[in-house]
Write a structure and sequence with these properties.
Blueprint lengths: L7 H9 L5 H6 L9 H17 L1 H4 L9 H6 L3 H8 L6 E4 L6 H9 L2 E5 L3 H13 L5 E4 L3 H6 L5 E6 L2 E2 L12 E2 L6 H7 E8 L5 H8 L2 E9 L2 E10 L7 E7 L3 E7 L18 E5 L1 H6 L2 H7 L3 E4 L2 E6 L8 E10 L1 H6 L6 E4 L6 H8 L7 E7 L5 E10 L2
Helix pairs in contact: 6-7
């Protein structure tokens, strides 16, 4: 950690060049003693990336930023604030502390937080920023979190861990492909706490995760603006009940869809006909990740287009629905569509034998902010195109 970065003149320069060409800055002659232009460019890039993702940090003076990659990998302020409410009791240890965003928000809910980070420089950065932000109930340890846990007799009310994808792995679908190795160290972790909160990437398979972990009391699937951001696994020591799954959409209004796995197996009705003036419902990414496709229809009194199409219809609109809602204006088959001129709309493809980009080219469809062309399939197997106006985005 180069403390020269915190000099007032340097900070003024960083703030004045947030919209400048960082590549040009990195290649220019050094402006400040003991600070390379490449380092300055990195500070500017990281701060710029924080503007929407981490506004508390962005708007505070004298924040020291890590590499831009660390900003990309850290939790957003919105998701961190949400997950902090899952902790219980008075103490929490974050075994993979990183930039310290999660620890900062846990510290707003928990009396004492311990932040472990094996990278000494990143640990020092997180500690400095916590002081700037008056988060005085966080203790910082520049250590390997698991090793620290092995050698301390103190129990914690919560243990939080955010295992990362191993460098040699591509897309990760199982915890065994992440590091630290939670699965091999699960007995150790459970011996130190009654509640474990594990954050994983959204690609992790729910069924595989449940088999790997055991004792999972809750799964929280978090999305922001229809993009699944993370999955949180709550393990409560000696838990033996049924896992509760909650899909949460963190937009202007927070919406939660909770159920137990046994509830998801229900019989539903399929739409016998789709009519102009009806509403078309598309579940948020978090709901789709939950796999409760039929339960969605039952809860919101919807009929489904097709068994393999996660689109639903209803005569009435329900703004409590977590996802997009469209009003159907026209319904076509593909044949008359070929003859139509000046087609406009954002193209959505769900269970239709073509790709969106190919359909745009084929029918010369121009983009439109509020109008959508939804290519899908009915319960009878007929391919249809629904022209609809969006009523609700999230």
């Amino acid at each position: 950690m180069n403390k020269n970065i915190l000099d007032q003149a340097v900070q003024v320069y960083i703030n004045a060049n947030l919209n400048a060409d960082v590549n040009q800055i990195a290649l220019s002659k050094n402006l400040f003693e003991n600070i390379s232009q490449a380092v300055l460019a990195g500070q500017i890039t990281a701060k710029k990336k924080s503007e929407k993702k981490l506004p508390t940090w962005f708007n505070a003076a004298n924040i020291y930023y890590p590499s831009p990659l660390s900003i990309e990998q850290t939790s957003s302020e919105i998701t961190a604030r949400h997950k902090a409410k899952l902790a219980k009791g008075n103490t929490l240890i974050d075994l993979t502390g990183g930039f310290g965003v999660d620890a900062f928000f846990f510290a707003k809910e928990i009396k004492e937080v311990t932040h472990c980070e094996i990278n000494e420089d990143l640990s020092a950065i997180a500690a400095h920023n916590a002081k700037v932000l008056s988060a005085n109930n966080i203790v910082f340890k520049a250590v390997d979190g698991l090793e620290f846990l092995k050698n301390i007799n103190q129990p914690f009310d919560n243990i939080y861990i955010d295992p990362a994808r191993r460098a040699e792995k591509g897309k990760v679908f199982m915890l065994k492909d992440c590091t630290p190795d939670v699965i091999s160290n699960l007995d150790l972790i459970l011996s130190k706490s009654k509640r474990i909160i594990i954050k994983t990437a959204p690609l992790l398979d729910l069924t595989a995760g449940l088999k790997e972990l055991g004792n999972v009391s809750e799964i929280h699937i978090i999305s922001l603006k229809n993009e699944c951001k993370e999955i949180l696994w709550i393990i409560d020591k000696d838990f033996a009940g049924e896992t509760k799954i909650t899909a949460s959409t963190l937009n202007e209004e927070v919406k939660n869809f909770s159920f137990y796995k046994s509830e998801s197996v229900v019989e539903i009705a399929f739409a016998k006909e789709i009519l102009i003036g009806q509403y078309l419902y598309e579940p948020d990414a978090a709901l789709l990740k939950s796999g409760a496709f039929n339960l969605i229809a039952e809860r919101y009194k919807l009929t489904k287009l097709h068994p393999q199409t996660q689109l639903y219809t209803a005569v009435e609109i329900n703004h409590e629905f977590p996802g997009r809602i469209f009003k159907i204006e026209e319904i076509y088959s593909s044949s008359p569509l070929k003859k139509m001129q000046n087609l406009t709309g954002n193209v959505i493809v769900r269970n239709y034998p073509a790709k969106a980009e190919d359909l745009v080219k084929k029918f010369k469809i121009k983009a439109d902010q509020e109008k959508f062309l939804i290519f899908s399939k009915t319960a009878s197997g007929e391919n249809i195109i629904i022209s609809a106006k969006i009523i609700q985005y999230y």
